[in-house]
Write a structure and sequence with these properties.
globular; single chain; alpha+beta; 3-stranded mixed beta sheet; Histidine-containing Protein, Chain: A
Amino acid sequence: MIRKLFRLVPITRVTAALWAWQNRRELTRWVGFAWRALPPSGAHRDDLVTEAKLRGGLAKDERTRGLPTLAVRVDDGLAILDGRMDPELHDLVYSIAASTGGVRGIECRIGDRGARGPSRAHVHTMPLPAPGRR
């Protein structure tokens, strides 16, 4: 059956391997998420679904796909964002998290990476919508 599938879809192993290598960061993050989602996970299913939506939203945008320093987690409706990146990307990640369904709050631990020096704190001016408005 798999041989018939490969005849219909002209994807070689080399092409699949190159694609996997190009997207290795994103793939390892999704594998880690899938490992946490397998039973008997201690996480709530609602949090896993919300985290999957958030990861999907971040993977859709080519600017946020595969960011090497971005770590995402959802715990009891609270999206926890961590990493270090440029201020523009920082705002984009925050806005994607804010627009994701199921996110009731955001704990942003992302530090801004400037041209030189250590990471700086970043103030978000975008308010989260009220919980009943989603």
